[in-house]
Amino acid sequence: MRHLVLSDIHGNWPALEAVLQTAPPFDQVLFLGDAVGYYPDGDRVLDWLLEVGAECVLGNHDAWLLALDRLPLEGPVMEILAWQRERLSEEHLEFLASWSWQKEVEGALLVHGSPCDPFEYLDELEPARQAFACTEARLVFHGHTHLAGAFLELAGPRPWVRYQRFTQGGELRLPPTVRALVNPGSVGQPRDRTPGAAFALWEGDRVEFFRVDYPLERVGQRIAEEGFPPWLYTRLTLGE
Fold this sequence. Notes:
By secondary structure, this protein is α/β, with parallel strands linked by helices. It has 8 helices and 12 strands.
């Protein structure tokens, strides 16, 4: 089975549209969290995830939106989430609330941050070593850092861990003796200084990474229409 692996869409509908127009054929969607936050079209993103029957795990922005009545509404991030929640239907909210922090699909573990902690960033070698120790899964898909790449652990008495970037796309093949923490990158807001929507395709021992351009000005227009902070557009143009 071929899986389309997505993470951190953050309400950026034009970016998701570009992914769907570019992606090769796939059988199932795996979503690693953060459907909402930052950009205005979280409702459209959730509609699509519902429509395709995606396997989803909860991201921190998703969890914050669900818990807004218990959190201080301070700063633009929380204000955007409050704005989005007002526009979500009961079906959307029930869908989000049904997501767990972890899910297993065909032997792979899906998480948002880390197998150790859903809010942890896997952006350095030491947290990656700890993450491998927190799970027996050979393959873990995660998001949260918005960085396309993979931590690879070579089996042995003292496992060796290294990192491989896939900012411009590329292919990862997993030998039997290697475990991997794979981040497909962010659809909606990349942070590896490369603009465009990032995603991956997974089939068996092969993961292929992609980066696709799309008209950023469409997102800029939506930001202006809804009165969102202009720095959200600037981040997209810089990929950070």
